[in-house]
What we know:
By secondary structure, the protein is mostly beta strands. The protein has one helix and 21 strands. It has one helix at 294-300; strands at residues 8-16, 19-27, 39-41, 59-62, 86-88, 113-115, 139-141, 166-168, 193-195, 220-222, 247-250, 284-285, 307-310, 312-319, 331-339, 367-372, 391-398, 400-405, 411-417, 428-430, 450-453.
Amino acid sequence: xxxxxxxxxxxxxxxxxxxxxxxxxxxxxxxxxxxxxxxxxxxxxxxxxxxxxxxxxxxxxxxxxxxxxxxxxxxxxxxxxxxxxxxxxxxxxxxxxxxxxxxxxxxxxxxxxxxxxxxxxxxxxxxxxxxxxxxxxxxxxxxxxxxxxxxxxxxxxxxxxxxxxxxxxxxxxxxxxxxxxxxxxxxxxxxxxxxxxxxxxxxxxxxxxxxxxxxxxxxxxxxxxxxxxxxxxxxxxxxxxxxxxxxxxxxxxxxxxxxxxxxxxxxxxxxxxxxxxxxxxxxxxxxxxxxxxxxxxxxxxxxxxxxxxxxxxxxxxxxxxxxxxxxxxxxxxxxxxxxxxxxxxxxxxxxxxxxxxxxxxxxxxxxxxxxxxxxxxxxxxxxxxxxxxxxxxxxxxxxxxxxxxxxxxxxxxxxxxxxxxxxxxxxxxxxxxxxxxxxxxxxxxxxxxxxxxxxxxxx
Length: 459
């Protein structure tokens, strides 16, 4: 029987009620309307958003006529279709010849779920970078033909899929040739479950930076034995801001090769980098071993051995001690910080134990002096290092004697209590114990016509 011509591939725009629809079809005839406005001929490849890309599109239809067409690249095809809620006829898209799916579904943020059919064959694909980045689906189902054995780039592949709660990669998800995995799962802020198959290998990967960055609800992560880091040269902030990651199991192949060893927690390429005290995450051995440098443990792992890092917690409580933090109650827990190793191996936001977000309370009639672990202390000893265990710090308050000048400069008021408002040595002066002979205090002025000794001064 004669072969029926497939025709040329087009994307045709139409409207149906409130929907703006893109239809992918092939035809021997050019579509009606204006090219570039009503329809577009599909080119062999795209390095940016194609002409039909629009945030107004609400629906995509893959026409039956399209099933005979085998595109060699599908990169950017559904790029930034932020209002698209439906893709119909995806089984009519034969991707078996496609070598690039770069940014294919990028920012399809209104697509609540995606099921990839058998016809969605990825056996020839070499680049899947940012393929699903920014998508809004809560579930993603892979086809049995979704294979990745030819892929070399997966950077940002699932990044910012902020509604995705769980992800199970199939056994066909082979990463044996992938060189770039940076930002691969980064900013998947709802992801609590991630399953990586044994085929998820990193034997050729050089860039693992930010790979799990800001997976803030991921509670545990077990990397398969095939996850090695012998070729990695960039692991910067790999697990940064994984706030709920209470358990991390690293395989024996997770080591640092010579020249890329991570010398300390403040190093810019450290995979355990701590970004802020509020969500600091670091790790200690499950056996409670002191770990002054995580890399020591990694470097000493024996063949076939595994190492599980678990999070220990110390809570810092700041007590306003009769003052307040601008809230109704006088006690406020400011932050929960994390430490690693035993109680002597303590780290903080900057990596050297320094505090940099200590809350400052206020109290009418008193000066804030700092903090102390003693509630009745009169001298502050504000901590500069994390404590060995959960600790409460109490605000220390003080008062002083002052002379305050009225706005018109005619009245001087002697008061005792909190530091007055305004500029020192202009609007007010601290009263010292004595003044040298012949020395006039700063408040001495020929414009003052009245002096008031406030009741507070009796104290």
